């Protein structure tokens, strides 16, 4: 199977998206509505996209989903849907960390900081290298931090690409700290489902697939030092 048909779902962000690809060729993408819950739209969008691309669900060879971090409710909906489809149709599935898809969506780079809003003004972040258009390599661990700590974490790096919805939200902070550094802020935030599919294709070809019942969301909790004392006691 050289060019598998892939159905990919990204519900980690408010809008989210669904894509159908044949290998690395994008056949169709549908973006969600940030004002409407994924629970009300995901299956409708999947049906609509399959109809647009004239592909029947049993023709799908691989299911892929963004596993987080991101919206807790959105992640549960997306992962549960993909797990159910893969199990029912007896197809392989792959879970892709959301921040990996964000980094890939910004293109090739020696060092890319992927950022997503995490609520309450905080961000999910992780540093990657992106050697080509099909893969990424993590350079640190995913974190859930206040924006001010971004500069503690990455401010020493002279060349950086900042990408994702969080980079757009934190543009002023990043620009103020950039000074004479070679920092680039990627202002476009493309729909992530096609990039989830690209990363899933690479893993599929390397036989790195997941069992539906073993797939779990990546929530990335804040570090204990950042959490209120009463929350630590209850944890």
Structure description:
With 235 residues, the protein is an alpha/beta fold. The protein folds into two domains: 5-98 and 190-224, 2-Layer Sandwich (Nucleotidyltransferase, domain 5), CATH 3.30.420; 106-185, Nucleotidyltransferase, domain 5. It is 34% helix and 28% strand. The chain has eight helices and eleven strands. It has helices spanning 38-53, 72-89, 98-105, 148-154, 165-169, 171-178, 193-205, 229-234, and strands at residues 5-10, 17-22, 25-31, 62-68, 93-97, 109-119, 122-130, 137-138, 143-145, 159-163, 182-185. The strands form two sheets. Strands 6, 7, 8, 9, 10 and 11 form a six-stranded mixed sheet that branches. The longest helix is centred in the middle third of the chain and has 18 residues, at 72-89. It is globular. The relative contact order is 0.18.
């Amino acid at each position: 199977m050289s060019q598998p048909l892939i159905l990919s779902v990204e519900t980690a962000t408010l809008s989210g998206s669904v894509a159908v690809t044949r290998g690395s060729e994008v056949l169709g993408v549908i973006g969600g509505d940030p004002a409407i819950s994924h629970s009300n739209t995901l299956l409708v969008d999947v049906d609509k996209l399959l109809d647009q691309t004239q592909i029947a669900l049993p023709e799908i060879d691989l299911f892929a989903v963004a596993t987080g971090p991101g919206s807790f409710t959105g992640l549960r909906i997306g992962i549960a849907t993909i797990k159910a489809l893969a199990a029912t149709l007896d197809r392989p599935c792959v879970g892709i960390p959301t921040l990996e898809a964000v980094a890939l969506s910004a293109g090739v780079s020696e060092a890319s900081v992927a950022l997503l809003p995490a609520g309450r003004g905080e961000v999910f972040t992780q540093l990657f290298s992106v050697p080509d258009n099909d893969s990424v390599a993590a350079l640190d661990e995913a974190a859930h931090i206040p924006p001010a700590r971004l500069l503690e974490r990455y401010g020493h790096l002279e060349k950086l690409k900042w990408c994702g919805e969080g980079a757009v939200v934190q543009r002023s902070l990043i620009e103020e700290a950039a000074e004479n550094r070679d920092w680039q802020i990627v202002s476009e935030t493309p729909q992530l489902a096609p990039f989830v599919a690209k990363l899933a294709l690479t893993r599929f070809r390397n036989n790195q697939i997941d069992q539906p019942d073993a797939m779990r969301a990546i929530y990335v909790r804040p570090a204990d030092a950042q959490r209120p004392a009463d929350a630590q006691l209850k944890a």
